[in-house]
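Minutes, project check-in

Agenda point 3 was the complex the collaborators sent over. CS summarized: two entities, 677 residues total, and the question is how they sit relative to each other. Sequences were read into the notes so everyone works from the same version.
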Amino acid sequence: MNSKKEKASAYWKENIKYLTILLTIWFLVSFGAGILFREPLNEFRLGGFKLGFWFAQQGSIYVFVVLIFIYVKLMNKLDKKYGYDE
Amino acid sequence: MSVQVWTWILVGVTFSLYFGIAIWARAGSTKEFYVAGGGVSPLANGMATAADWMSAASFISMAGIISFAGYDGSVYLMGWTGGYVLLALLLAPYLRKFGKFTVPDFIGDRYYSNTARTVAIICALIVSFTYVAGQMRGVGIVFSQFLQVDITLGVVIGMTVVLVFAFLGGMKGITYTQVAQYCVLIFAFMVPAFFISMQMTGNPIPQFGMGGKVEGGTFLLDKLDTLHTQLGFNEYTSGTKSTWDVFAITLALMAGTAGLPHVIVRFFTVPKVKDARKSAGYALLLIAILYTTAPAIAVFSRTNLIETVSNKEYNTIPEWFKNWENTGLIAWSDKNKDGKIQYVAGSALSSKKPVFTKERGIHGERLISNANTTANELYVDRDIMVLANPEIANLPNWVIALVAAGGLAAALSTAAGLLLVISTSISHDLIKKQLKPNISEKGELLAARIAIVVAILIAGIFGIYPPGFVAAVVALAFGLAAASFFPAIVLGIFDKRMNKEGAIAGMVVGISLMLFYMIRYKTGLIGVMDPRPVSEWWFGTSPEGFGTFAMLVNVIVSIIVSRVTPAPPKKVQEIVENIRIPSGAGEAVSH
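CS then shared the predicted structure for the full assembly.
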């Protein structure tokens, strides 16, 4: 019973670690690059886009999609490691 | 063939398809009715979620709003997609593991209290009804526009169609119909975008075309910025809202998206926790296709519009301009009597919508009685951008008709999903869990179907006689969801110490604060008090962005109250430990 509990809490800790990293990226691309720092970023260009504007209307959305699929991959691996997969 | 004939053919074909599916996927049990039997594949569920999510507003209005708002429109793009990251990482897997039918189910069990459940039901009903009222109006407008009937008849047709789907199939029928509707709507959205992108920039992919070069070698966005500056508008890529307000609105829309009951309930329909995560990924991927195309359409149509009308003789203007003028969505008043259309910054009218007189002017234009004295002579309704785009770009008739079929798919799929949530709240959360616990499965199914009929009737009345506040309130449904559910659910999973006192206090304070701000600064108290002016906004926060503020207050209140009241019982703490582990999810059950 005790080892089962320890396993669960270790799993949860790793899960929280992943969440923190992924949500930091989530925040940086949207609220960071797309909103708070868009003025300085707009000095740079990506083809015809000003970079800050690109993050706000295109880039952040692409990153969001990638983030979820990375999360799916990480969690599937984590589930296997702890024997929670089915 | 004419546009009209094409419209009838395409709408007829797609509708037969939807009906066929609804009949094939009839629901026999409450489980099939509420969560489609819990056996939907992640990809199918992703498609259904995407169709459910993308309403007539996303399909028709969003690109138009962005095309007039420029950078400021980014709040919708980031807000309505970024919420899925929160949903996938913070909510979906755990709620699936929890394995009940509805959000109030979770709140009621996690907070071991019928009061909490009741508060959640009330919040769910407020959020869903504000949202669905706008949708039914949208259904009516789309039907009336495309089938050339008046709006009332449009709403009635829409109600009937939704009723048949929802009545027959419940969640199961709706889910599989939505899969078909997703395919129709995304195809309809993309085809004109490809054509126009190719025409303007030589690159058929709109996401690249937006950053591409136009004839003459300048970048499209630079050209648009120059046009805007010349006409006195703000630079397209800069916007006018304050950075804080953009931040607040985006966050409120994200948290609201993750907290909308009709979106969350989707993740109860897949077989395993693993599938819930993957399903959220598919949903966002499928949504992102439309959401990254919309800003490109916005740029194309904005540039096209300015180039086609600015300083052009009214007599030489293309046919589409006059067609939309006849529907009242475009108005022109030749203020300086030069026969040319001056389109510059500032409103052309002294009130919001043009008021047409019966007469025509010397150029054949419809005269309006409420033109003001600014230099701008043109009024353009934002909603026409997506609808008129294919006409402006001279695309073939079948493409124009396709947009009609797509708009209908978008409006219907969303309305059906929302109505199901409303009826579930009533039949399952209210009747089964509170009023009459020993009701038979058959009785519950009957109650669900009656609830759906009543909900559709109420929504239809809202659609036919829209109270003035509905349009203003739809966007605020997100603020309400962010201020009530989102914190209660997230804290319920991530904070084991959170108890019923904290959660109830947080939800009540959060939603009341949001309602108060909405009424005070956005809608007014109908007939008694007008909305207070912008200069009085708290910390310069718009009502749309206030959800962020109310959500923070909810979290703070919840945490403080929970720490000074007793910890939740052992059994509840075990529930929390259990939902944190993905294995053994089993099927969604009602007990």
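Noted in discussion: Chain A touches chain B through 41 residues (CB under 8 Å).
Follow-up: revisit at the next meeting once the mutant set is ready.
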